[in-house]
Amino acid sequence: MRIPLIAGNWKMFKTPQEAEAFCERFRKLYKDTDVQALICAPAIDIPAVVEGFEGSDVKVGAQNVYFEKEGAYTGEVSVEMLKAAGCSFCIVGHSERRQYFGETDETVNKKAKALIAGGIRPIICVGESEDIRIAGTQNEHVKAQLIGAFEGIPASDAVKCVIAYEPIWAIGTGRVATPEQAGDMCSFIRETLIELYDEDTADEIIIQYGGSVKPENISEIMDQPEIDGALVGGASLDPDKFMAIIDF
Ligand code: PGA
Asked: Is the terminal CB of the chain with fewer CB neighbours within 10 Å at N or C?
């Protein structure tokens, strides 16, 4: 039984003070829903968000991590640090990190392994660019990303991973994929997981859709049988909108 997971990805928005204000408002609005809610905050905001959600069901995650245990890696944050700060999830391989910060399938794989070893669940992002979608090779592209991300990860660990399908052309553009496009790709991802593992393993893995998710379109996205949640960028910055999304 997959419990739907709706995660906010704040990207590089909000100071700790703004994060605190978000939590204050969100907690006033918050009511129990059928979904697991999560906020993936900038590293500097994590303590404020953990404190702001204390005693509630809302989980806290990070947006990036470095795979080495510790050492001379100026500017990086380790799995142990995230864990100690109260994170239970961490996004890896977001398309913005692949595009601007040189993230590759190989680093995604190393980060996913390090996170699992440290008790944090990775949210592995995959998705095609507009050019790939026009060329019609999106399935091959996403499959290669999945093979790279899950390389050497046993089934018992794979079930701890979440996959976020985010077509790059739909991120922050207001151009949401049609529910069918999103649903088709998430079915294809599930089939690929069956090939990589087996039916039971694939059945346990949460697959999210991301890209211009809003209160207005969440229901039809969640109606797709293979979509188990959403990764929400812009709309997660507003507590009222985020609450409306998790209470779709
Ligand atoms: P968006 O971002 O909801 O603003 O399109 C989604 C994401 O990048 O995770």
From this structure: N
Report domain 5-246's class.
alpha beta
Average pLDDT of the segment spanning 55-72: 97
Q: Taking 90 as the threshold, does the pLDDT of residue 173 lie above it?
A: no
Q: Which residues contact ligand 1 via a Cβ below 6 A?
A: 9, 166, 171-172, 210-213, 231-235
Q: Which of 39, 90, 232, 236 to mutate to test the pocket of ligand 1 (most atoms within 8 A of CB)?
A: 232
- For residue 156, pLDDT beyond 90: yes
Phi, psi of 124 (to 5 degrees): -90, 120
pLDDT value for 175: 85
Mean pLDDT across the chain: 97
| Best residue among 40, 213, 237 to mutate for probing ligand 1, ranked by most atoms within 8 Å of CB | 213
- Å from CA of 72 to ligand 1 middle: 32
Atom of ligand 1 nearest to the CA of 210: 6
Q: Whose CA is nearest to atom 1 of ligand 1?
A: 233
The predicted-structure confidence for 41-60, as pLDDT tens digits, reads as follows 999 999 999 999 998 999 99
Residues designated catalytic? 94, 166
